[in-house]
Design a protein that fits this description.
4-stranded parallel sheet, ornithine carbamoyltransferase activity, Rossmann fold, 5-stranded parallel sheet, binds norvaline, 9 strands, 2 domains, binds phosphoric acid mono(formamide)ester, 326 residues, transferase, alpha/beta
Amino acid sequence: MTRNKSFLKEIDHSKDDLLELIEQALWFKKLKKERTKHNYLEGLNIALIFEKTSTRTRSAFTVAGQDLGMNVTYLASDDIQLGKKESVIDTAKVLGSMFDGIEYRGFKQESAEFLAAYSGVPVWNGLTDDWHPTQMIADFMTIKELFGRLEGLTLVYLGDGRNNVASSLLVTSAILGINVMIIAPEELQPARSIVRIAKEHQTGGSIYITDDVSAVKNADILYTDVWVSMGEKVDFKDRIDLLLPYQINSNLLAQVTNPNAVVLHCLPAFHDTNTEIGKQIYDQYGYKELEITDEVFQQHSSSIFQEAENRLHSIKAIMYHSLKNL
Ligand code: CP
Ligand code: NVA
């Protein structure tokens, strides 16, 4: 496998590397279900830095680190000097002298890259404005579990085609040689630079970007994400108006030819009013559900929560690969 010990973005890794991580994640899932101890990295220390909020990624890094026998330290970005009183580079040097690995979730991709370059230890990107690579291993692991294969499948992403998850899905599908389609209004279609990156790393399959929702008929996997990402400063109402035609709902699902098509969502999802923001949107604009209707979310909750659980097993595989030869 690659000599690249950090996990910063998908294009740093080959198709074989990504497939190996998926297999390793499936193996760790089996060990966990059997309750077979796998504290292979006992005594190591890792730091988790979160500049943005998180439930899945933070929990997955914490439990995966502990299951592997490591000591896990959470460094809330408000409590450390990072970026405010101390540069990312100086912080990287300090953390690298004390920890064996660092998870970083934040805004700039550059910060993740600097941490990796100057800490001298593996750095794992837990999401930046640009990419969400650890999510990808969980997602394609889930697809492998659900279909028994990856080859020949078509993944259709609907919604904000410019966000981190859309970019990661586009590029990862291309690397893995899976057909990928982004259905989004023109304003929110992937940037040309991202499509170019995907094409440069494509090993097979097709890439198709359109604003035509009827293209969804080809989907084996339907995927969506929130319409406004963390840190984005946009008018919520404008975004809703733009993306409502791209909502995953029962009418849209009825157009899909494959009766065994699955729905995935990286979560969190706005499918009801049981959240502060969901309630606020309902009170202000009258929408009870955004990127996915509650009906579809509940119908497909088994695959969606399987995907969430797989964050644990896949992050474990990613950290194990980075640190196993220490
Ligand atoms: N999917 C995902 O990254 O979830 P969190 O934001 O809760 O970590
Ligand atoms: N695109 C979303 C993903 C959350 C996991 C965000 O960045 O907020």
